[in-house]
Design goal:
The two termini are 29 Å apart. Helix 1 runs parallel beside helix 5. With 428 residues, the chain is an alpha/beta fold. Strand 1, helix 1 and strand 2 form a beta-alpha-beta unit. The chain contains seven helices and 17 strands. Helices cover 17% and strands 22% of the residues. An eight-stranded mixed β-sheet has the order 2-1-3-6-7-10-9-8, sandwiched between helices. A six-stranded mixed barrel has the order 11-15-12-14-13-16.
Length: 428
């Protein structure tokens, strides 16, 4: 158990997730072609602990995004999802897994509840407890939820040697804390990540990733499986929300061979906090953990879908009159005008690369949710439907990651000069 140099009087917190209409969003098309390797496919274990009746379905949707990325690349996926994320099912799912992903409550240290770290409850997973009633209830008082801390992890889990651990939307794991308390200092964020990563590194993990970014776990899985020859540092930097200026590096206090990377950036509601972290050897890589291959499943190319759903239209953004542009919800990379956040590929009847020049509320998190707001000039580039219809079904892709199955395959590229994607604030 690692402890900070001092016990802070307040521990800092932030809500790590916002309710979204998850059924409107997916990541990878299920018909994506992959090249399968001759060796046995890697196993990916995905755990979803109970986080309440309202939020757990959203976590389940994010977990299925990660599962789809893994399965479309030939990996096998072992699921232990609430309301069946019991200790027994979780242990079986993790057994022999090369990648382990946990979604759920996090309970790290330091925290507001005790000055004394308890290895039975901290730096572990929130799973169905002995009082579970077959639903997503996360009440500690009734025993529906129980925290199984680092001591339980060490005694019960047997993942593959050199496995990769990914924490997604779990308090404390990326450095941030919980609730609405003040944000952590760098020292406190470092203590959170050091304490949370130490037990999985002790279990033999070659890398620890923690992300609060929307679909961040799915992107990490896709990158690890598609580009296993990348170093872990390169994998960490590959997330589109990574900002070099937000990175701080430290020695890991529990391991002479490990480093900790803290990433502080604006994100949910433009709040700057520690949303993303890494622990391990950044020069190491996933390929050497799986029979030394250059890639896990051959030479596949990632085609990560950002979102699919409906797009609406608007006239134009000032300074871009008559130009094909797009505004995105904050959750998908929109930034308030006059800032710009690079480009995104929007596919309807056709695919076009559009500069992101604004943000839109887009009814986010409701049944009327939109995933983009197209300028009038962009509308006619994307679809043959009349503007009067008001809504069109679209798919959003990162630039350079459009699958061959989209029609037409050749993109119609805009020539508008835009700033490179930088400090983009999005919600998880």
């Amino acid at each position: 158990m690692l402890v900070p140099a001092h016990s802070p009087s307040r521990i800092l917190a932030i809500v790590v997730f916002a309710t979204v209409a998850a059924l409107l969003l997916t990541l990878t098309p299920r018909n994506q072609a992959v090249t399968r390797a001759a060796e046995a496919p890697p196993k990916v274990a995905i755990i979803v602990g109970p986080v309440g009746e309202q939020l757990t379905p959203t976590y389940l949707a994010l977990a299925e995004m990660a599962a789809a990325e893994a399965e479309s690349r030939g990996a096998t996926v072992a699921r232990a999802y609430s309301p069946d994320a019991t200790p027994e099912r979780v242990i079986a799912a993790v057994d022999g897994a090369s990648i382990v992903i946990y979604f759920g409550h996090g309970t790290g240290f330091p925290n507001p509840y005790s000055d004394v770290p308890n290895p039975e409850t901290v730096n572990g997973w929130g799973l169905q407890g002995p009082g579970a009633m077959g639903n997503h209830d996360d009440s500690l008082g009734t025993g529906a939820l129980r925290y199984y801390g680092e001591a339980w992890l060490a005694a019960n889990l047997h993942p593959a040697p050199g496995f990769v651990m990914i924490y997604s939307n779990a308090c404390y794991a990326p450095g941030a804390s919980e609730g609405s308390q003040p944000q952590p200092t760098e020292e406190e964020a470092l203590a959170h990540v050091a304490n949370y990563s130490a037990p999985v590194l002790a279990l033999g993990a070659s890398a620890y990733f923690a992300t609060d970014f929307y679909a961040g776990a799915a992107r990490l899985v896709a990158t690890l499986l598609d580009q296993a020859a990348l170093s872990y540092g390169e994998v960490f930097r590959s997330d589109p929300l990574f900002i070099e200026a937000g990175l701080a590096e430290f020695d890991h206090p529990a391991s002479s061979s490990a480093r900790i990377w803290l990433h502080r950036s604006p994100y949910f509601e433009n709040l700057t906090d520690y949303w993303y972290a890494f622990a391990g050897d950044p020069s190491g890589g996933f390929a050497t953990r799986l029979t030394g291959r250059e890639g896990v499943l051959g030479s596949t190319v990632a085609t990560t879908l950002i979102a699919t759903g409906r797009a609406s239209s608007y006239g134009f953004t000032p300074g871009f009159e008559g130009t094909a542009t797009v505004a995105l919800p904050d959750a998908l990379g929109g930034v308030p005008w006059p800032a710009q956040s690079g480009s995104v590929v929007v596919c309807g009847d056709r695919c076009i690369e559009l500069p992101v020049v604004d943000s839109c509320p887009c009814y986010w998190g409701t049944t009327d949710q939109r995933v983009a707001n197209l300028s009038n000039a962009a509308w006619v580039e994307v679809t043959d439907g009349p503007l009067a219809e008001g809504l069109v079904d679209v798919r959003l892709y990162p630039v350079g990651q459009v699958p061959a199955g989209e029609s037409p395959q050749a993109l119609r590229l805009e020539t508008v000069a835009v700033a490179p994607r930088s400090d983009v604030a999005t919600q998880p």
